[in-house]
Amino acid sequence: MASCQHYEQGFFNAYADMVEQDPDLIIHLGDYIYEASWGPQVRRQASVEAESLTDYRRIHAQYKTDPHLQAAHAYAPWLFIWDDHEVVNDYANLNDENYMPLEQFRARRAAAYKAFYEHMPVRLRSKPHGENMRMHDYFYYGDLMTMALTDARQYRDDQACQTPDDGGAQVVNCPELRDMTRSMFGKAQERWLMPSFLRSGATWEVLAQPTLFSRLFQKDRNGVPGSWSDGWDGYPATRDMIINAAARRRPKNFISIGGDMHSWWQADLKEDYNNPDSQTVGTEFVTTSVTAHSYAYNRFMRMLPDNPHIKFFDDRKRGYSLVDVTPQTWTVQMKEMTSIYDPTARATTRKTFVVENGKAGAVDA
Ligand SMILES: [Fe+2]
User: Fold this and answer.
1) If you measure from the C-alpha of residue 32 to the centroid of ligand 1, how many angstroms do you get, rounded to a whole number?
2) Among candidates 112, 128, 131, which has minimal Cα distance to 52?
3) Distance 262 CA to ligand 1 centre (A)
């Protein structure tokens, strides 16, 4: 599992290490490209900020010049979901954080999706039509694993509680947050997902979504409890629907995988986050970024005492996750790069977590 690779912020040698592990499948959980330049630079991106089809094509083409990324594409099949940076930071459906006029944003999203389709090994059914491109899909691996690939950007309702000067993500607390008609996936994708979700009978039923799925209780700058409006805490109705399905349908095992956070997370998925003693209905793994940086260690560490379902967090290293799936166990090795500034550097294993078949929650291996 990989996520969040900024071309400028480091070399993609995580993929060299990944290829050495002989993977059968590589899944990218979003932010395969970054549309804009920010952070430390080991090399320069083709556009400071992509907006036109030419810009997005140049960025995709440039990413594909990285020899380690090329090697990983040559080595194994890939699956993809996307997050925001394939288009622009914090976009939601046809809304961007700067209130770009609708027709202008429609053209930008169409350009970004077209360039993505041209450069990525995705199914023919994903061929875009204007600003629309289908990415959600189910994948079945016999009775071992079912994977639902979801699209949490293209169809979502706009982030809750926005202000006139900020149309993106914030820590918020307003009545709109609790509007149960708001959706992370959009109603049509929910109608596609839910009838078969967690009902395949496979040993491992996996939700592939871009970010941290668990609740992350936090406070705003003034110490007032709030929710991060771009993440799942900003779309509680969709999360409740999925958690309730997990509690009712009783799959053999429910696993959520995600990226976006530029950090490792391992968590219990709880039936009721207000009650730490409630049933654990699944197990979550968030993989750190391939190169994109994080500067949030102290801020997240301060949140952990309020979030007892979160068993592990660290944002200080880049890397990927190596997952071994068998009928008995789901094992995740968190692979940390010793350096992303030296393309010959490789990974060490920071932590290994095991989920045993039929037992929600991970244990240290
Ligand atoms: Fe990212």
Assistant:
1) 8
2) 112
3) 6
